[in-house]
Write a structure and sequence with these properties.
122 residues; mainly beta; 7-stranded mixed beta sheet; 4-stranded antiparallel beta sheet; 11 strands; 0% helix; 50% strand
Length: 122
């Protein structure tokens, strides 16, 4: 099971750190991803990380502002979000179980957690 946390209200330019706790399996052999869904829009890729090759990937809209990382000992994957913008407002979901070459494709993930709401507003 996956459980995302850390969402909340933040002003533009601020930072938030999301965490995804994983129970029932380790993350050392899978690809983890973060997706987000803004009101009235489709769920979209944000970032992914491969534990085997230590590779990361980001959408163009968050590259250089967001950082995905993982803690294998704690079985968590984190998303550090800096320089937040109002357009980052969305429900953020963590996911697991894709293979790295398909890590940006929503339909490739086997496991999903409940989302956490991030609101960027002054």
């Amino acid at each position: 099971q996956l459980q995302a946390s850390g969402g909340g209200l933040v002003q533009p330019g601020g930072s938030l750190r999301l965490s995804c706790g994983i129970s029932g399996r380790t993350i050392s052999s899978t690809t983890m991803g973060w997706f987000r869904q803004a009101p009235g829009k489709e769920r979209r890729f944000v970032a992914s990380i491969s534990w085997i090759d230590h590779l990361t990937a980001y959408s163009d809209s968050v590259k250089d502002r967001f950082t995905i990382s993982g803690d294998n000992a704690k079985n968590t994957v984190n998303l550090q979000m800096n320089s937040l913008k109002p357009e980052d407002t969305a429900v953020y979901y963590c996911a697991a179980g894709a293979d790295w070459r398909n890590s940006k494709r929503l339909g490739q993930y086997k496991y999903w957690g409940e989302g956490t709401l991030v609101t960027v507003s002054s």
